[in-house]
Structure prediction request, 745 residues.
Amino acid sequence: MKILVAMSGGVDSSVAALLLREQGHDIVGVTMRLWGGESDTGCCSVSDVDDARRVAQQLDVDHLVFNFSDDFDAHVVDPYVRAHASGVTPNPCVECNRHLKFDRLLERADALGFDAVATGHHARIDTDGSGALRVARGADMKKDQSYVVHMLRGRALERTLFPVGGLTKADVRAIATSHGLRTASKPDSQDVCFIQSTAGREGFLAKRIAFNPADVVDTDGRPAGEVSAVELVTIGQRRGLNLGGGDKRYVVDVDVKSRRVVVGGEHDLLTHDVTVNELCWPHSDDKPTMPRDVLVQGSAHGARHAASITKASDDSVRLVWDKPQRRVAPGQTVVFYDSTDTYVVGGGIVTS
Amino acid sequence: MSSTSANGGVGGYVYLDHAATSPLRQEARAAMDPFHDVVFANPSGSHRFSRVARRAIDEARDVVAEVIGCRPGEVVFTSGGTEGANSAIFGAVRRNGGTAVCSVAEHHAVLHCVEHVAGRVLPVAPNGALDARLVRDTLRDGDGTSVVSVMTVNNEVGVVSDMVEISRAVRRRAPQAILHTDAVQAACWLDLRDIWPHVDVMTLSAHKFGGPKGVGIMAIRDGLSLEPLIYGGGQERDRRSGTLNVAGIVGATAALAVTHASRPVELARVSALRDMLVQGLMSSVEGCSLTLSGGAAVPGIVHVCIENLENEALLYLLDEQGLCASAASACASGAMEPSHVLAAMGVPKSRAMGALRLSLGHTTTENDVDAAVRIVADAAATLRSRSGTAGAR
Prediction:
């Protein structure tokens, strides 16, 4: 097969390329230039591109750089900024996978005559009873990334490969080390790539949106203090509220429009259900058969909680938790897994 | 697959990226050879081997002066076009104070220097050239302009500036200012002796005319004082320190001499190839249009925009089929950047996305042109056919 391998300059995608090469595929490595602004690693992460290119050279395969920074701004950064301005906390990594790593790169791979795109994600692709492809957990549960690629389905999955999905991270590093790949001991990437660790989310957003102060009240509406930037407050947050001492208090509600933040005890944070839209089912082309009992994961490596799904409207569902759970901030991605926690049965974005 | 001449050193491939760099000329290679080995000495020394090297440098300087039409003492050897531009702009501003002026379509080697000294960046006409009238209307005596930098030939679209009129405007409006021209893309196509009388500083890059990389030539008018960029042993009459790159200078000079001597013949030959290329592209590539119309560009540069195509995808297919071409400049990661030149010319982003530069030079043959037309046409058609969305957006 002729395969375009997305090489970020990290160890997982380096080993993905190596494995495909060893299997005899005709591969080309590509690094996507996504973020054009300031970052912790310098202009367009030059050192990461260098690592990807040097690994490709070591494997004796061509390496390209695609500039997708306009698409990244349009599909990831701008929505991230706009969401914060309206009090929503999105997951930019999920959107990047959805729009860039898969939509855009698959489209480019098609145009250039490649049969498939491969990435270094720790996830697997398997088939259900009817032979349809679906995203499954990677072999290494601690590194599993099925959450961020849950939206893949149908034709996209047919053309996608996750060569390291069946390996543990330790296996991946061992393979990289035994082949002398320069990325063998490179640390895993952390956090959101376009936000500098020094300035943080606050510094990034401060340059792009206006912050507004807000009143902080308790669940009975009594004043409890104030915050200087309601746009930075997230449900479940405990720190940075300047409430003085006393019992632990959490943000249980944020209303950007009326500039009000409600705080309460841990029990006030608990809820029985959550509404989810922008749904994504593995069989989108047919009528989705909505699963009933699922395990729900609300962040990249978060815990799973059992819930049952009921239809809320034509394009949204209600998750009813088996046991009350902490509220999930609107904008967050929730992914549904089967009751054995092995494969993805759907996902969407929390509205309330 | 057709191939370029053996001289191109890129057998089996069609190389139409001469504006990025031109293959080393045989004459340059031959001239350099002895200085890698036999004549290895430092020309600044006092023994017999140094004297041989010194003589080679002196003779090279005479040849370069002849080609530019300047005095030998006005020639300074540098490490390339970028060093030349930096030396001219920072050298003028650091010596005389004030600030710098350039056009927005300059090469980054100039543009980023001018931006660094918080200079003024002037807009260009729709053909990418700086209009002398704008210079006349913008500059004022005593406005603090110490250097004006204008490229003779634009590296992306190939438009030729009217250096005579621009010079007249600068002399009249800002007589205190030094006029620098980046003539890097001019050397192959224009007689430098026609340009030198109108400017104070001219900079060249050897690898663009078949010399080695890492060698530049700067002509600095006698009596003009620029603050050196590099201090050290005082070589090049204290204007540029550092041990002279003897082999490089000798190779650059040999390439420049051949370029100059063959220019009249090459102009006619490459112009005919250019016409063939343009005609072929226009008739066989759907949605292809010339960025500059009728005679505004040097014959070595054919710049087109192909509708509804992404050049990043197109270049991959061209490369796969053995055609080396380019689109715009690349950033440090190797990613292609949207062209600042096309943006300055007012070319909409949707059209600039399909920009393609094919640049011709001393190794280009008719076979190259035939093959290039066929490869571009096939690649564009392939991208279009592979789906409504693929490649085209």
In short: Chain B has two domains: 6-24+262-381, 26-258. Confidence is low (pLDDT under 50) at residues 1-9, 389-393 of chain B. Chain B is about 40% helix and 15% strand.
